[in-house]
Specification:
26% helix, disordered N terminus, five-stranded antiparallel β-sheet, 14 strands, single chain, alpha+beta
Length: 222
Amino acid sequence: MVLRKGFSTPTGKNSQSGFSVIELMVVVIVMMIMTGIIVFSFRGNKRAYVADDEATKVLSFFREAYQRALSQRQAQRITIDRGNRIIKLTDMGLLPGGDEVIINRGVISTGVSLVQPVVSGSPLAVPPAPYNYASADFGTGESIDVYFLADGSVTTAAGFNNSSFAPASFTFFFAPSTAVNTSATQTTANAGNLIRAVTLFGPTGSTKLWRFDSTKFIWEIN
């Protein structure tokens, strides 16, 4: 079967040109194969960047809370709820007659795990000194509250509610969910350099983003 009719050439000879159905089917099949390869590659890249994306998102929330605390002279609370995959920034509104107001809210991807990875049976070491801040404790409720005060320092819920305002520092971990086994014995599975960490220094509220290179954490300039 021919899709294009023949035509007469100037010499008078009849010539036929065009694609047969079989040729078109071959082209379509090749295009489908190429599309599948591209989609598969895209999914792999997405998995590789999920920890980066979520770590950067949390870092942005921390920095927004810090700036608001200084400019508004008002305590700001960051809540990370890993059970419901939510992060939110709340203005504590403690001025006379003030009320708490949610300023910003985001969703944490289900593709990232916020637990401290375990490698070869031991918890993954936090970024090196002087940044060796303890891993953030989400507690049995799967949620943690971090308070940024008017002087820029950071404290826990206990410190804020007791008015002790003792500075507290944290390390938050981010790894692709497919690279972490969340059973009783957590292990990384070919996590390689996909793991990220964010450190938060209590006395000053400064933050840093870290990349794991399969052996140690390296500070990412940001």
